[in-house]
């Protein structure tokens, strides 16, 4: 099955499993490098961002880097989410912070596919 390309309506084959795996490992390594100051790590993006806590930490780190020196910004969060509603609320906090920085989010929301990070769809 070919998917339409963004440019000029061309189509291209879906990414191979190997390519998706390489992209996932590369992004995971980048996330871990960003999270290093917090002492947090991700192992499986499909799981580790689901409760929103590590996603919020990543957004905070990136916002602080962009904002330069000064007090770090702390976003509110439910520290020990116990149900899907609380997890989605945490994810929404992170998405709202991204949007507040004038970063356009297209077709992304806290309830998108139960917030399971799916590289096959992201990179199609």
UniProtKB/TrEMBL annotation:
Single GO molecular function: actin filament binding
Transmembrane spans: none
Keyword Membrane among record annotations: no
Matching SUPFAM superfamilies: Calponin-homology domain, CH-domain (SSF47576)
Annotated ranges, domain Calponin-homology (CH): 21-124
InterPro entries, alphabetized: Actinin_actin-bd_CS, CH_dom, CH_dom_sf, Filamin
GO biological process, one term: actin cytoskeleton organization
Keywords: Actin-binding, Repeat
Protein name: Filamin-A-like
Taxonomic path: Eukaryota, Metazoa, Ecdysozoa, Arthropoda, Chelicerata
């Amino acid at each position: 099955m070919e998917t339409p390309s963004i440019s000029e309506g061309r189509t291209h084959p879906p990414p191979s499993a190997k390519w998706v795996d390489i992209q996932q490992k590369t992004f995971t390594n980048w996330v871990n490098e960003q999270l290093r100051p917090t002492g947090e790590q991700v192992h499986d993006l499909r799981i580790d961002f689901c409760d929103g806590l590590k996603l919020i930490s990543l957004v905070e780190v990136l916002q602080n880097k962009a904002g330069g020196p000064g007090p770090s910004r702390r976003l509110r969060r439910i520290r020990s989410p116990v149900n899907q509603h609380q997890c989605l609320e945490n994810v929404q906090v992170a998405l709202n912070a991204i949007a507040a920085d004038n970063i356009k989010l297209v077709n992304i929301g806290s309830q998108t596919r139960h917030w399971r990070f799916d590289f096959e769809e992201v990179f199609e």
